[in-house]
Design goal:
Chain lengths: ~110, ~110
């Protein structure tokens, strides 16, 4: 079946540090890949998505590039702020007929220290 | 725009008790979902409903029942609460069949079983 693996369970950074959260997936064909962010007390919300090989998604200074060769969609931000502290989820939606499910990774807790 | 409302926000139950969580959405989406969120395990799908009168089991359906009363509402029942159980239950909705479409989430119901 489809799967998503996030390597980092927790990441602690100082403000203005560079962020990378690794996401690798396993699925047939060309799934759509998503990054969601969840702030305390709220449900996850979409950060951005990508549907084609080499497509870059971006929002609020975060970005990730769809790489079918390495089956990856790593999240990066050049300079994190305290307000970026949240849980980040990588997810995929497979393009099989009638498929309406998202498969989520385990989530990465980002803590940014001012 | 739209909103997903989950009630109650906090739910405290006793071991063996039957507990019901409710979800309402005004996006007019066809598809609705229930997820369980545990620390370090990501979001695991319990039940989903593609359209009104449809019900599909997810990966974690054992111990739960679900009901899609109408297009805008989707309920989840914990059939027998387990002692020391703590989790957040998230409801979500999405347009049917659009594999690239984002899911919108509610703020969650936090369950504690004494």
């Amino acid at each position: 079946g489809d799967s998503v693996t996030q390597t980092e369970g927790q990441v602690a950074l100082s403000e203005e540090d560079f962020l990378t959260i690794h996401c690798n997936y396993s699925a047939s064909g060309y799934p759509t890949l998503f990054w969601y962010v969840q702030y305390p007390g709220e449900g996850p919300q979409l950060l951005f998505r990508a549907s084609r090989d080499k497509e870059k998604g971006s929002s609020r200074g975060f970005e990730a590039t769809y790489d079918k060769g390495t089956t990856s969609f790593h999240l990066r931000k050049a300079s994190v702020q305290e307000s970026d502290s949240a849980v980040y989820y990588c997810a995929l939606s497979a393009h099989t007929g009638g498929n309406n499910k998202l498969t989520f990774g385990q989530g990465t807790v980002l803590s940014v220290i001012p | 725009g739209g909103i997903i409302t989950q009630t109650p926000k906090f739910l405290i139950g006793q071991e063996g008790q039957k507990l019901t969580l409710k979800c309402q959405q005004n996006f007019n989406h066809d598809t609705m979902y229930w997820y369980r969120q545990d620390s370090g395990k990501g979001l695991r799908l319990i039940y989903y409903s593609i359209t009104e009168n449809d019900l599909q089991k997810g990966d974690l359906s054992e111990g739960y029942d679900a009901s899609r009363e109408k297009k805008s509402s989707f309920s989840l029942t914990v059939t027998s609460a387990q002692k020391n159980e703590m989790a957040v239950f998230l409801c979500a909705s999405r347009d049917w069949g659009a594999y690239y479409a984002e899911q919108f989430f509610g703020p969650g119901t936090r369950l504690t079983v004494l």
